[in-house]
Design brief:
There is one protein chain. By secondary structure, the chain is an alpha+beta fold. It folds into four domains: 79 residues, top7, de novo designed protein (2-Layer Sandwich); 75 residues; 72 residues, Translation Initiation Factor IF3; 181 residues, Roll (C8orf32 fold), CATH 3.10.620. It has a five-stranded antiparallel sheet with strand order 20-18-17-16-21, with helices on both faces. Strands 4-5-8-7 form a four-stranded mixed sheet, with helices on both faces. Strand 12 and strand 13 form a beta hairpin. The chain is elongated. The C terminus is likely disordered.
């Protein structure tokens, strides 16, 4: 009888106190429980898993680690019981922003958010399938990070067990990423960027194009950069990933004349560094008295630069290679003459371009590299070489308004980058008269609203 009574009491207790219900029946619920613990600072939470969830964790403990990482835990240690009870014994938070991403768009959005907040450290946790695809294609992963705005970092940690990508000491940019196939597409994209003045960008190349461009001397790449007037020293290489990155954080990707004009046209002059702002002020002052037709203003700018600049090559500075030295210091080499002409024509609404190549007039022992300009007058592009027209004591015009015939006599250059509407034959009869360097050409003052 006593045994029967004991059994009846146990039965009553069993039905009166049923087994504890599960706290989590999905990994999303596990994440929420752990996230609340991280937020509250509780390092040892405990909870009960549903039967199916417990079976999944026994088969693959990484499922629990991923849930913990998504909740913001760098590392987690735990014990569990057969009834599904889980006790966390140690939990270390990341201590920086943690962002979950499902796909490429989510990754781009997450990185841009970190860029806008200027976060130095952050963690990305892609969904497992997306994480696997990123790890299988490192070049695509790098391209996506660049496209999102992450320019560089000191350390990248990744963990397959938690699908984590952690970035430390991050730096950011506002560049664009272009996936290009073939040298022709690369050169076309470079020229488009040069004409638009975009100052930060990257190229993701296919294998064949990379191999053809990135030889030991990189001559093909240098030729494309020169033709597009992109400064090669602004390029960073990611050889294993086949990525070229051009970033103008410290200096212009292009010749400064381009950068100044792009800022002026965009109404964004305040972003220019102090030296370029000073150059712009000086250039505006110089052309403030220049009026008339495009032909009259181009000739006045040509003469003004010949009077203002003294030819000089200075290996101790880069200022003579651009409009900065030409305008602010009055000293420049051919690059500086040409960049200043580009800038001053642009400020007067005259279309001009930089052109580079090799001089046919240079002696064999000297560097033949040379730069001059094209200017659009009366619907045709004409060559203008201010450097060669600065004759020292006098201004000559042998290289002013050149046609295609005269330029072929003077230079060797890449014809692929020459516009179609070129003046073919130089008009030798239409030559301005030679003037002394000190003689001041009289600029016409505005006499109508249209001139102003």
């Amino acid at each position: 009888m006593r045994l029967v009574a004991i059994i009846m009491v146990m039965s009553m207790l069993l039905f009166s106190f049923p087994a504890k219900a599960a706290d989590a029946d999905s990994w999303e619920e596990v994440e929420r429980i752990l996230a609340r613990a991280v937020e509250s600072g509780d390092p040892t939470p405990s909870f009960t898993l549903g039967r199916e969830l417990l079976a999944e964790m026994r088969q693959d403990a990484d499922r629990f680690r991923i849930a913990a990482a998504r909740a913001g835990c760098r590392s987690v240690a735990w014990t569990w019981w057969t009834d599904g009870r889980v006790e966390i014994t140690q939990m270390e938070p990341f201590g920086c922003p943690v962002l979950q991403v499902k796909d490429k768009d989510g990754l781009l959005s997450a990185v841009r958010k970190m860029r806008d907040r200027k976060e130095k450290n952050f963690v990305l946790i892609p969904d497992p399938a997306f994480y696997a695809s990123l790890m299988a294609d490192p070049a695509e992963k790098k391209a996506l990070l660049l496209e999102g705005g992450l320019y560089g970092w000191d350390t990248e940690y990744h963990s397959d067990s938690t699908c984590c990508l952690e970035y430390v000491s991050c730096s950011y940019w506002n560049g664009s990423v272009y996936r290009v196939t073939g040298e022709k597409e690369l050169s076309s994209r470079m020229r488009d960027l040069a004409s638009s003045g975009q100052n930060s960008f990257a190229f993701l190349l296919d294998g064949r194009t990379w191999d053809s461009m990135m030889t030991s001397d990189c001559e093909r790449l240098k030729a494309l950069e020169t033709a597009a007037f992109i400064r090669g020293d602004a390029c960073s290489f990611y050889t294993e990933l086949r990525i070229l990155v051009y970033c103008g954080d410290a200096a212009s990707i292009y010749y400064p004349g381009y950068e100044i004009l792009c800022a002026v046209r965009a109404g964004d002059e305040d972003r220019l560094p102090p030296t370029l702002k000073a150059t712009l002020r000086a250039a505006r002052q110089m052309v403030s008295s220049v009026y008339g037709t495009d032909e009259e203003m181009t000739l006045a700018i040509h003469d003004m630069l010949c009077r203002h600049i003294t030819y000089r090559i200075d290996d101790t500075t880069d200022s003579d290679d651009c409009c900065v030295g030409a305008i602010l210091n009055g000293e420049a080499n051919c690059d500086g003459y040409s960049d200043a002409f580009l800038l001053m024509c642009g400020l007067k609404g005259i279309r001009a371009r930089l052109i580079s190549g090799d001089s046919r007039k240079i002696s064999p022992n000297e560097d033949p590299a040379h730069m001059w300009n094209l200017v659009l007058l009366k619907g045709l592009w004409r060559g203008v070489d201010v450097t060669w027209d600065d004759g020292g004591k006098e201004i000559v015009y042998e290289n002013y308004g050149m046609g295609w015939d005269r330029m072929l006599e003077n230079y060797r250059f890449i014809t692929d980058f020459i516009p179609e509407n070129m003046l073919q034959s130089t008009d030798l009869k239409d030559r301005p008269r030679v003037v002394s360097r000190k003689e001041r050409r009289i600029e016409r003052k505005p006499n109508s609203v249209e001139d102003k």
